[in-house]
TrEMBL record:
<feature type="domain" description="HTH araC/xylS-type">
    <location>
        <begin position="239"/>
        <end position="337"/>
    </location>
</feature>
<keyword id="KW-0804">Transcription</keyword>
<keyword id="KW-0805">Transcription regulation</keyword>
<protein>
    <submittedName>
        <fullName>AraC family transcriptional regulator</fullName>
    </submittedName>
</protein>
<dbReference type="Pfam" id="PF12625">
    <property type="entry name" value="Arabinose_bd"/>
</dbReference>
<dbReference type="InterPro" id="IPR018060">
    <property type="entry name" value="HTH_AraC"/>
</dbReference>
<keyword id="KW-0238">DNA-binding</keyword>
<dbReference type="GO" id="GO:0005829">
    <property type="term" value="C:cytosol"/>
</dbReference>
<dbReference type="InterPro" id="IPR009057">
    <property type="entry name" value="Homeodomain-like_sf"/>
</dbReference>
<dbReference type="Pfam" id="PF12833">
    <property type="entry name" value="HTH_18"/>
</dbReference>
<dbReference type="InterPro" id="IPR032687">
    <property type="entry name" value="AraC-type_N"/>
</dbReference>
<dbReference type="GO" id="GO:0003700">
    <property type="term" value="F:DNA-binding transcription factor activity"/>
</dbReference>
<dbReference type="GO" id="GO:0000976">
    <property type="term" value="F:transcription cis-regulatory region binding"/>
</dbReference>
Amino acid sequence: MRVDSPTSLIRAAALAHYEELVHSLGGDSAALLADCGLSPSDLCDLDYQLPYLSVAQAIEGAPRALAAPDFGLRLCALQSVETLGLMSLAIQTAPTVRECMLQVDKYIHLHNPALTFRNFMAAEGGMECLEVVHRIRPLAEMPQITEICVFYMCRLIDVLSDGALRPAAIHLRHAPVGSSAQYLRHLGQLPRFQAAFDGIAVDAFAWRRPMPRHNRLLQQLIERFLLGQAAGANLSMADQVRAALGSLMRVGTTDLHSVARVLRQHPRTLQRHLAAEGVAFEALRDGLRQTWARELLSGSTLSIGEIANLLGFADQSVLTRACQRWFGATPRQLRRGLPF
């Protein structure tokens, strides 16, 4: 399907468990998806890029077809936080819940480039607010998508604080689309409807407290995403390193110590395991850098300096030398698609 620009694409993870939910409500998910120009096969890979308009139509149209006004909240409840993918990696090192949520804002484009967040202090009450901002609105009205975004905020705060922190208030610009009982069941409180913004209000001091040092749930989410399967599966060490590096690299982290920490190994132990398999960490990293450099230079709007930073290079000149070694061409030549 043709789309207008890369910014109109979002990860298929936005529709994780969509088919399951539609079927549980007595609907035909294939028919609903077809009405939006999608097919069930489009949802098989969570990292597959789908047109935002089609995803929005699928989510906003389902409640009407299924007589389920809380469809968005139900969908969000089924989706585990790990469907956010790279964001769960980006936020793990933040010292406080507040900093974690600001990291989400920094990396939200990896999941949905149409969204951003804005934080500000409330006029009174000592509350800090986090607002969902739709940079792109494929539909004039998107209450279901808005409620999903706000519900995710609530769930992230709950996970990051090990259940110790909840929003003091939930704000939604639109009027209620479901019953009070439905909102209470999903959110634990009634939102303030027809508010000035979409988002949450949190005690400004409470979410600045240090994060729990051992957040087992968050660690498990990160491990499952990095390794692509349940912890303990029989992967070679080289494959585990490739999986971890392939994800960490996308948030600008490529060093041995970070990979070792994710895999719960001492760096020297990790290197010994790799040596026993006949590979070196530096060679694995170089191969992944080469693959992703080609993808970013040919298919992204990031500057060459930004790409160098993401790949873990000290500066743009190091990336240039690497590209000449890998491809016999400079980054600018690769970006222009010149023959080499």
